[in-house]
Amino acid sequence: MALQVRKWVSVVEEIHTDGGPELAQPLRKAAVAAVIHNPYAGRWSDELDELLEPSGALARELVARCVAVLGDRAESCGKAAVVGTAGEQEHGVACLTTPFGDALRDGIDGSTWVTSTSKVAAAGEAIDVPLAYKDALFVREFYDTVTVRVPDGPRPDEIVVIAALANRGRPHHRVGGLAKADATAGDGLR
Questions:
Q1: Contact (Cβ atoms closer than 8 angstroms) between residue 30 and residue 163
Q2: pLDDT by residue (tens digit) across 89-101?
Q3: Which of 7, 45, 74, 158 is most buried (most C-beta within 10 Å)?
């Protein structure tokens, strides 16, 4: 079982400063979206296997493309889905569950739960993909987002599925919280 991909979209941001001094290491955020056909658009199904089963393979491809676009080691990650108006939010969630999360973690050598969001929307709607540290969810300096928008997707019978990565935490973080070096298994590790 494979998902039908209409197109791939990549987004990259490189931030050198954000109201303070120049960063020694710029923040790079990248996201790659696959615009896929929704086999459940316009119809009810008790089972969502046509999205669940192939989601791991889709995640592996998305993560490989996202790592390449990022051009650096991934330190944070997130995932999202935008479902076209003939579908349900549950269709997007089905694309992002355990097979997808496992493949994303494996692709960046991560160990924590992967943040996500999903919604139903018309083509061109933006979504903010949440980011968090790849090895411990509660490391606050990594709480961030990357915004993704596909101008012609999702069409009513499509889903935009997104993997997002960043190479570091927010610029000039200074609101405290758990430091990356101090994270343990009790701090949101899987």
A1: no
A2: 999 999 999 999 9
A3: 158
